[in-house]
Write a structure and sequence with these properties.
It contains one helix and 23 strands. It is an all-beta fold. The longest helix is centred in the last third of the chain and has 4 residues, at about 320-325.
Length: about 375
């Protein structure tokens, strides 16, 4: 068994070196996700860095959409023995203060996107409900995630455009998730081929001046809830415990042709409290799956082995071109404006509105 520097820390959870996970499932992963925006259609930057211990791979991506440009830089290398090394070529994440402050960097490169950003949480990191799905007796999802809203400081360069990022304007959300979910090269489906292609999902970490709200909805084709969350969190200085808002009532308004969401309403009825209604207005959609490794490109998927040497690639699409616009499909991570109404008072905030409606969904009439 090979040791790593992390073994000198008292963090072990099993009688194994820390670089070895307790399951042999090839799909085990450990990932960072960040987004950065100003609550407008100015820029949406999304960054992910993941490790796949049972595949021996670590990879990273950054996706920037501004104007009609959809620009991606991605990198992959062999994981090696040191899981504390969170760099992948020009990418790296530095934990400055656990659960509060992190630095996220993409060094200047030939692909026209770079940044140096420091994250500071505005609320304490929150543990979300465990995500578990079993299909045809196989565990497909078994993952845990923390989530947090916050603000950014630093700069971003995309093409010829420079963005000075200051915490008075630039917000975002981040998550850390780990566990099992499909990654890497496609497997022979076997009996899993009987599973319909279906995914009905909404994830909305929203940030207002005085509090944040985290909302999740996942349903199967019949409308049964697989995962749900509704919680309001105040900054630590407020001295208030998180408020559980109850199961979200999610009502999207779909474009009848594209399944893009034009607006949505998320309602809560907190136990013992007054109803809360949030009106959602997407303002800057970003197609998360395109170029980043989430599964559309057969030659670049998260955890997919790209060979013994570091590989760094760039992908850029112009959404004014019909052939590039036609590529934009799947999960959408949109900057959104949120209007939260409670007891006759409305406050306005912004955040991530992530959604996808793949396949049938009986309650909404999607086929």
């Amino acid at each position: 068994m090979t040791l790593s520097p992390l073994d000198d820390y008292p963090v072990h959870q099993a009688a194994l070196p820390i670089r070895q996970v307790t399951t042999s499932d090839r799909n085990f992963y450990d990932r960072y996700y960040f987004n950065c925006h100003a609550g407008t259609d100015e820029l949406m930057l999304i960054v992910g860095i993941g490790q796949y211990p049972n595949l021996g791979v670590t990879d990273a991506f950054a996706l920037a959409r501004h104007g009609s440009t959809h620009r991606v830089v991605r990198a992959s290398r062999e994981l090696g023995t040191d899981r504390m090394d969170t760099s992948v070529g020009p990418f790296r994440v530095e934990v400055l203060e656990g659960l509060w402050r992190l630095r996220v960097v993409l060094e200047p490169n030939e692909h026209g996107l770079d940044f140096d950003l420091t994250w500071e949480g505005t609320i304490a990191a929150q543990a979300e409900p465990r995500h578990f799905i079993r299909a045809q007796e196989r565990v497909i999802f078994d993952s845990f995630r923390l989530a947090q809203t916050g603000r950014w400081t630093g700069h971003v360069r995309s093409g010829n455009d420079e963005f000075v990022v200051t915490p008075d304007r630039w917000r975002g959300s981040r998550d850390r998730s780990w566990g099992v979910r499909p990654v890497g090269e496609s497997e022979a489906p076997g009996i899993q081929a009987r599973n319909p292609g279906q995914f009905y999902w909404m994830y909305a970490p929203m940030q207002f001046d005085d509090f944040s709200v985290l909302a999740i909805v996942q349903e199967d084709a019949a409308g049964n809830r697989i995962l749900e969350e509704g919680v309001r969190i105040w900054p630590q200085a407020a001295g208030r415990a998180p408020q559980h808002l109850g199961a979200p009532d999610y009502r999207p308004e779909f474009d009848p042709v594209t399944r893009q969401i034009q607006a949505a309403t998320i309602s809560f009825r907190p136990p013992g409290g007054v109803p809360v209604e949030v009106r959602v207005r997407p303002v800057h959609p970003v197609w998360l799956l395109v170029g980043t490794g989430y599964g559309l490109e057969p030659d670049w998927k998260h955890g997919m082995y790209q060979g013994p040497d570091l590989v760094v690639q760039g992908v850029c699409y112009d959404l004014t071109k019909p052939e590039d616009k036609a590529r934009m499909w799947g999960m959408v991570d949109s900057v959104a404006v949120f209007e939260c109404t409670e007891a006759g008072t409305t406050v306005v905030g912004s955040g991530l509105f992530e959604y996808w409606a793949l396949g049938p969904h009986l309650p909404t009439g999607l086929t």
